Amino acid sequence: MNTEKKITRVASDKNTSGAAYTPTMKDKQQAGNFRVLGVALWVLAFVVQIVGIWFLFAYAPLEASQQITLIAILVVDLVLLLVGSSFWKKANRFDPPSRASSLFVLQSQLGVVMAFVCFLPVLVVAIIKKEFIVAVVAAVALLGGSLGSADYHPASQEQYAEQATEVETLTGKDFVYWTKSGNRFHLYSDCRYINTSNTSEIFEGSVADARHMKNITSLCSTCKGKVMKEKGITEEQLQQAAEAAKEAPQGAGQPEQATEAAAEETQETTE
Asked: How far apart, in whole angstroms, are the C-alpha atoms of residue 144 and residue 134?
């Protein structure tokens, strides 16, 4: 089946060879812009919280209208936090940290930390001032902000390289297809899960491109199985190719050669 959907090429020059992914200078600049925006919004969120704390000290006990005003302030605080966290998560997709870094968890989940920074102080003050309705709203905002700011699929240099190596091992190049609404990248543009009546546009590019655009983290099992069947590739060979890529020097990964070596080793073992 040939796809009749609009195909949009996401052109880039990614380096996923070896054990880790190296972002391009353009990617680093994009990540830097997102991080600046994220931090700026977090600073604004913290300032808004300070306004809320001042409001508590200035007017407690609060009248009904003042409670509504303070709750509105907390809502603005939450919106700024969540938007800032979304920019931070985008930045990490363009310039992912390494899992080997001691700061990996902190960099990946900094939005959760900022949720506590932006809501815990006002929550404590509200309890001290016995403004329990405001305290409940602040607690809900803290919980919602933490959950909304968490990155449930944190990007890493190693993960990008592992995913690209798998695709290169299967097809010979780091090239996949995906859609805006999908949650997997594909090896065939006419895969039945991507070429549907609900799909108007299909994107193509590298694994990193798919991660940048939508943070797609999984390969379509149907596409994978089809390629493995056509080329006679086994899961063992894929694993051996992945291990060979991890051991290769940065920039020297050659998944196709690794697959051939794995195939020869498997053949020798069976003989």
From this structure: 15
Interatomic CA distance for residues 185 and 170, integer angstroms: 14
Domain boundaries, the chain: 6-15+157-270, 25-149
CA distance linking residue 216 with residue 221, whole number of Å: 14
pLDDT attached to residue 14: 57
| Spatial CB neighbours of 110, under 8 Å, sequence gap ≥ 6 | 88
Tell me, rounded to whole angstroms, the distance of Cα 133 from its chain centroid: 35
Q: pLDDT tens digit string along 187-246? A: 998 898 888 877 888 999 989 999 888 888 889 999 999 999 998 888 888 888 777 777
Contact between 34 and 94 under an 8 Å Cβ cutoff? The reply is: yes
Handedness of CA 230, 231, 237, 238 (dihedral sign): negative
Query: Residue 72 and residue 121: Cα distance in Å, rounded?
Result: 17
pLDDT digits (tens, 9 = 90+) for 126-168: 999 999 999 999 999 999 999 999 999 999 999 898 889 889 9
Question: Would you mind telling me the total number of residues written for the chain in this entry?
Answer: 271
CA torsion, ordered 139, 144, 147, 150, to nearest 10 deg: -100
Average pLDDT over residues 249-269: 45
DSSP 8-state symbol, 198: T
Alpha carbons 81 and 124: distance in angstroms, whole number: 19
Alpha carbon 270 to chain centroid, angstroms: 41
Cα torsion angle, 103, 106, 110, 113, sign: negative
